[in-house]
Amino acid sequence: MKSAIALRMRSVFAAFKAMVVLTVVIGVVYTGAVSLIGRFAFPEQAGGSLLTDSRGAVIGSIYIGQSFTDARGRALARYFQSRPSATANAAGEASPYDAADSSASNLGPFNAGQVALIGQRRIEVAKREHVRLSQVPADAVTASGSGLDYQISVAYADIQVNRVAKARGLSVDTVDSFVARCTAHRGLGFIGEEGVNVLELNAALDRLG
After folding, report:
1. Same structural domain for residues 107 and 195?
2. What is the mean pLDDT of residues 181-205?
3. Closest by alpha carbon to 66, among 103, 95, 88?
4. pTM
């Protein structure tokens, strides 16, 4: 009986020692080492890949989307618009592009409310950009699984060029050139799709004055 208890206690003690060792190695040593390497080798990325304006003020992270609308939620004419966001806080209230509440709507493609919302967005985008409904890209009217997309498709950027150019008093060619500069190409030439970083693009245009 005693030997069985002793064996069990040895097993418990061994498990406890393993837990302590792994906690120290993985939770403290590994985490500390990675944090130090990141801070000194990749300071910008470790700091959140923050983007600043011409005055040095932080305007956001280049890897987290944000809205470019007025207080009433209307699109600002001089800015390229991001992909819609369905993030919501713990109370279920809409909180677009909130990195602390990354989430999707979880509504299926045949949900009546979702279908109506997409239809409404399509009409709004077509009217704002002066294009046909059939020219409105999917990412202009649908939110992603994270709700934090920082890129839009080249197609969505293209239909916004004329509006932004007119609002800023720039030529279409000039705005097109900025879109090209802020377009990330496919990984290794074939992985994923091209995407335009909206925050970088808008910030670059703002620096023109």
Report:
1. yes
2. 90
3. 95
4. 0.80
